[in-house]
Structure formats: structure tokens, C-alpha cells
């Protein structure tokens, strides 16, 4: 039986193109689903719906392979991962085409996304030893006879569940770091981008002689749900907060630890001394690129009243000519058809509550494509300001001060990322924003810096991918003390005498009894 995920309803613009998925066609009798080109409705590929048994089998294979993969040295694992990185790089046009077909995003955006992911694979491979390998730590005066060290061991098998909006960059943020740390991975990609998930697993399999280092199990939500309770040692989920809650509840049954990378409602703050042209360019790209379907996309903009009119004029001018759909368009379709209704309801709610349309508006919302929409004076209580819109809309409001901008920015249940444009106070304002990542005088820059941890607070989730934190996320800390010589004071023995206890009291008083405080 073949099921189809909700698809665009109007006729394809062009005839169907040849599927480019690398997976062999599913065996007869296997439940399947189709992935579709959201711009045309063409079938891009047909994929099996992974059953709980398929998931269990994949986890079993992954566990066996984890003994080999986890037993390799950091250098050997790095060697495999860097080869994988090179294979992906050489086949970048093929991967970009597949991402383009399954998500609808322009080739350039697909290439940018995959390039950032490649950089992350390289960073994780090259830095795993330094971050996770054994390192000595001071034992302290009381335990001076001990050599103390800490190292970070792989958890075993990591389950990764991914979204469709960045089907390479987002899951690779978990996969590359989990693999570099010595885990094997079972990956359930979004039902909208199964071909991309399979492509990633297939290319790594080529590099490791077909071993089950990274396996892809395609399917819908039920397949993801089966992965949560399959006995994996950690579940890394990226997707909506609503699904994240289900994932956490399912994982709680087996006390499986979870990493949740969920949605956001990020703001871009513009100070009165900011470069207004640059800030407008950044807000436009942050809000409209990938048709606004970016977890760390700009959804709200707070502009100092002194430059508000100038900013609105500037961004409106820059937005002229920016179109979704059509030849050479810089904005693609809305990948998930049901999202169009969410976007429409947010825009309508803003207008019902008194917002002003500067560009686009309700009539800009089509069946598959949403044209850039800019609203101003948007009431803070409207869903356009409180909920993730995930479409090419921007809500721009004036503020009297940067304190007010920060207060409004932080008045959200999310806390993923954001941006600040200010010449003098950028760092100061960035530090006050309650979110996992902020870029000053640029937008989304942190995502391209592999050494920076990536993740949110509040309903944007918890845990971190990327950077040293992202490597440690898929490990457990192993502490070891090695006695170098017999202790002058034998404290952990029933032979301990009064003299030793007095000496300990004296040492502790000398060390900690004073009034000195850190400044
Ligand atoms: P989604 O929650 O609908 O689906 C995500 C994944 O979960 C899919 O693979 C889906 O099949 C699976 N799933 C569905 N039900 C499940 C269940 N009961 N148990 C286990 N898995 C289940 O999200 P989406 O629409 O694919 O992605 C968009 C969302 O992802 C947005 O909210 C966006 O902000 C967020 N996102 C966050 C980040 C980040 O890093 N914080 C990155 C990209 C996307």
C-alpha cells in the first residue's frame, strides 16, 4: 500500500522528472509512502514505512556495529568521517538537487545548507579527540596523592529524528557529532525529505564498507515514535515543540535521555545608531529566505523609534522584486501544505487586532507559494507575535529604548536565537536576550561557526548540538582517579585515627576558613 503525505492539490507545472533517490525501490508488499516536489506535486521518490520491527532491527545492527565503531581511535573515526565529508562535497550538486526537489528551496539555498553541514562534519571529526579524549584535572590539596582525569565515552546507539526544513544541516548537527564521539546512529528523517535522509546514510555506508554506522529508517510519525522506545541510548529530536513533547513522553518510558531542538520566534533588534541599510537587508533575508521556514529565522523586528520610519522604508524598498515561485525565484514554495493555513491565520489575526500591511498581506498567500509579507504595528498579543509562523512574514514594531526591545524579545515562551544591530551596544544587548544564540550586526552567523554550541531555552528545547558541547551531548563523562602514592592522611579507612581527623580539620580551615571572597 502506498500512502501519500498531504500534497499540493493543483496540477503539476511541468511533467514529472525522474526520481533521483539513491534507495532501491521498496520490496513488494512493503508499506510505502511518496515524497513529493512541493512546487509541482511530482513524485520524487517512494520509500518504505519503517515498522517497529524494522526500527528494532536497525537498532540491533547499530548496537553490534557500535562495538567496532566505538572501539576505533579518534583518528580512525576522523579518517572515515573526513572521507564522507569529501564524498558529500564531490556530490554536492546531486545532494542540492535532491534537497531542492523534496523541499522546493532554490538550489543556491540547498547548496549553502549542505556546505555548512560539510563544515560541521569536518569540525566534529577533527576536534573530537581534543574535546572528548582523556585530560588531567587538578586533584586538589586534600587529594594531592591522586592523579585525576576525565574522558568522555560514547553512549552507544543514538536515535536521530529530523525535520524537513533543513534536511541536511539540521540532522547532520546531531549525526556528525554523535558519530565523531563514537556512537552509531539510526536516523528517521522527515516524511517530507526521506530521499535526503537515505542519501546521507548511503554515502556514509560507501565509506565504511557497508557497516551500519549510520542507518536511515524512513516513515511517518509512528516510525519516529518506535525509535523513541527502541532502546537507543539517546534520542536527538529536531522538529516542532508539539512533537517534541510526545517524543519526551515516549522516551520517559524507558528513561531514554533526549535532546530537543524545537521552534522559535526570534527577533532582530535595531538600535538607533545601527547601520539601518544593513539591518534591513539582514531582516529581509532572515525572515524570507527558505520561505521563512527556518527555526532560527527572523519573525519579529523591534526597531528604535528614532530610525523606525527609515528602517520600514528601507526594507520595503529592498523587498521590491523579491518573489516566491517563478523562474529564478529566490523564494521557494511552502514545503508542508498545512503550514499555509497557519501563516494565513497569523496574518489575519494581526490585521484583526489592528496591524498595518506594508507589503503582501492576506492576498499574498497562495496555495503553494506565499509572497513576502511585511506588517507593522503588530499587537504583541496576536499569534503573529506569539507563535512560530514559519512563513515569509515579518512583524516590525517600534520601541522607545533597547531595554524595551529586550523586554519584548524575551516576552516569549521560546528562546532559540536572534540578532542585534547596534554600533555601540551590540554585545551588551545580545547578553540580555534570553536565547541560545545571538548574532551582532549579522544574522544567523552563529550557525556557520562549528565551534559554537547550537540550541535553545524554554519551549525552543534543551541540550546542544555543534561545538564542544555538541560532542559532549552524545557521551557520558568518565572520571578516573589513580593513586600515585600512599596518602599522608589515610581518610578513607577504618584505620583513620584522631590525629588524621585533626589534621584534616586544620587543612580545611586553612583552605576555606578565611573570609576572602572572589572579586
Ligand atoms: P514535526 O514535529 O512535525 O516533525 C519532526 C519529525 O518528527 C519528523 O521526522 C516526524 O516524522 C517526526 N514525528 C512526528 N510525530 C512523531 C512522534 N509521535 N514521535 C516521534 N517522531 C515523530 O516538525 P517539522 O514540521 O518536520 O519541522 C518543523 C519544526 O522544526 C519547526 O517548528 C522548526 O522550528 C523546528 N526546527 C527546529 C530546529 C532547531 O534546531 N531548533 C531546526 C529545524 C527545525
Properties at a glance:
seven-stranded mixed beta sheet; 2 domains; binds nicotinamide-adenine-dinucleotide; six-stranded mixed beta sheet; Aldehyde Dehydrogenase, Chain A, domain 2; 519 residues
Characterize the structure shown:
The protein contains 16 helices and 19 strands. The radius of gyration is 26 Å and the shape is globular. The relative contact order is 0.12. It folds into two domains: 32-262, Aldehyde Dehydrogenase, Chain A, domain 1, CATH 3.40.605; 267-449, Aldehyde Dehydrogenase, Chain A, domain 2 (3-Layer(aba) Sandwich). By secondary structure, it is an alpha/beta fold. Residues 5-21 have low confidence and may be disordered. Helix content is 39%, strand content 18%. The strands form four sheets. Strands 13-14-15-12-11-16-17 form a seven-stranded mixed sheet, sandwiched between helices. Helix 2 runs antiparallel to helix 4 (107-132) and helix 2 crosses helix 6 (194-207). Nicotinamide-adenine-dinucleotide is lined by residues 161-166, 170, 188, 190-191, 220-221, 224-225, 228, 238-240, 243, 246-247, 261-264, 295, 336, 388, 416, 456, 461.
